[in-house]
Design brief:
Strand order of the largest sheet: 4-9-6-10
Number of helices: 11
Largest sheet: 4 strands, mixed
Radius of gyration: 18 Å
Mean pLDDT: 88
Order of helices and strands: EHEHEHEEHEEEHEHHEEHHHH
Number of strands: 11
Distance between the termini: 31 Å
Structural class: alpha/beta
Length: about 280
């Protein structure tokens, strides 16, 4: 679990509560803090009943550089990525771990991601990802085929692929590409056991000049390493450019629209996390 020192303690507590309720408990929970944590976050961690190992960086380095150091420290063969402000169904760990183990040749396994807009009465949207190995492979040069906060990965696959590295904004996608290059499959379950709480602040991260530069740098790195065809990189960057320059309202419309993906999974489990008085709307 990567953890930013700026994380809201209440969000972290809810995520830790989700992990305490898991039907299959992990051997350990490594919390990788990108810099020294304030007292309130430390208190939340100390109050949970999980086998936590807290690793704090002396100075912020970014998620990629931090996970490059911390992720290989995990003991188990199956590593599950957890985001510190997301929600997880009680069977998430069990479903992801057992599903990964039962699929020979699959190096990374994800699932569908429900998005709850906390600024709009917990309106639901979804980021739907491919559920076949071939479709995920076709997505790989063009779009990130996995929701990073849902994934389970074999430890030996992570190490063989070179682990995480500093690729601002694209640390996870960069890893999936190298996992595939190492000969392992990537795929998603059709079910959803993870939900992300989002708002306009999250959406704004995916637009603007800085994000455009990060995207260009990501594709340039893949081209230099021979992972993505140069023409695909050029077309992908150019096709994304208008979306990165759109007003925030237009980007919000796209991320909440049915064209992005319609749900084929049960979302009833998230009801316990929705505050009273908020009524989630169906996917448009």
């Amino acid at each position: 679990m990567p953890l930013a020192p700026s994380e809201a303690p209440a969000l972290l507590k809810t995520t830790l509560d989700c992990l305490e309720k898991q039907t299959l408990q992990a051997q350990e929970l490594i919390i990788a803090a990108d810099g020294p944590l304030p007292l309130d976050l430390c208190q939340v961690i100390e109050s949970c009943h999980l086998p936590v190992k807290l690793k704090q960086q002396e100075q912020p380095q970014g998620i990629g550089a931090m996970l490059e150091i911390v992720a290989p420290c995990c003991k188990g063969d199956v590593i599950i990525r957890i985001d510190s402000d997301d929600l997880y169904a009680a069977n998430h760990t069990e479903v992801m771990a057992l599903s990964l183990i039962s699929r020979p040749g699959i190096g990374v396994l994800g699932c569908q991601l429900l998005e709850l807009d906390t600024s709009r009465c917990y309106q639901q949207s979804v980021r739907k990802t491919p559920t076949s190995k071939s479709d995920a492979q076709r997505w790989l040069p063009w779009r990130n085929p996995l929701n990073h906060q849902t994934i389970a990965i074999h430890r030996h696959v992570l190490v063989e692929a070179g682990g995480y590295r500093h690729t601002p904004g694209f640390e996870d996608w960069d890893l999936w590409i190298r996992v595939a290059a190492a000969g392992y499959g990537i795929v998603n379950l059709a079910s959803c056991t993870s939900a992300a709480r989002v708002n306009d602040r999250h959406r704004k991260r995916r637009r603007g000049l800085q994000y455009i530069l990060q995207e260009v740098n990501f594709y340039a790195l893949q081209v230099r390493e021979g992972k993505i065809n140069p023409w695909i990189a050029i077309i992908a960057c150019l096709s994304r450019l208008p979306w990165r320059l759109l007003p925030a309202r237009a980007l919000r419309w796209w991320m909440q629209s049915k064209w992005r993906g319609s749900p084929t999974f049960d979302t009833a489990w998230v009801s316990e996390f929705v505050p009273k008085g908020s009524r989630p709307q169906s996917i448009r």
